[in-house]
């Protein structure tokens, strides 16, 4: 395997490992939010934000932990035939299934970016040019200039009414990380088929 691909696998897996280890602790944040919700409903005035914030925390926990679970091989597999195969046969089968997963994640990322553009106020036309324009303006001119390019920001229809773009941005970042981790797994499978180690 070329050194570039080996470096890619090492970098992506290091980033995935760090983010996954941090994401593991989001379950405790969610438990704290739900505990506060129970306490506030019992002894104080009920809060509006707790249940929706717990949902957002669970989304972050689930989506940011996904690439790490994929890296560890903790995902569910049909092990009826798989366990008896040689490592090379497993790599062939995994390579094909990873290709299907990469296609699915690509479609999911496309939809997520479109939804992110919508939450930032882009309601018609091509969303990617809009997102690129906002990101380039933010990088070159700062946040005040980027805010001028935004439209009506989408809010949740609940009583708390939080903005939706932060959770949609996190979802897109998590799907992108899953896509990058899937490519790293595909590279590992190709190396196994060729009889090489990464």
UniProtKB/TrEMBL annotation:
Key word Transport present: yes
Principal location listed in the UniProt entry: membrane
Compartments it resides in: Cell inner membrane
Q: Which Pfam families match?
A: DctQ
The cross-references to InterPro entries, in alphabetical order and at most eight, read: DctQ, TRAP_DctQ
* Annotated ranges, domain Tripartite ATP-independent periplasmic transporters DctQ component: 30-191
rRNA-binding keyword on record: no
Q: What sections of the protein cross the membrane?
A: 21-39, 51-70, 91-113, 165-187
The UniProt keyword set, sorted, is: Cell inner membrane, Cell membrane, Membrane, Transmembrane, Transmembrane helix, Transport
Membrane topology, as annotated: Multi-pass membrane protein
What exactly does this protein do?
A: Part of the tripartite ATP-independent periplasmic (TRAP) transport system.
Quaternary structure (record):
The complex comprises the extracytoplasmic solute receptor protein and the two transmembrane proteins.
What does the similarity note say?
Belongs to the TRAP transporter small permease family.
What's the protein called, per UniProt? TRAP transporter small permease protein
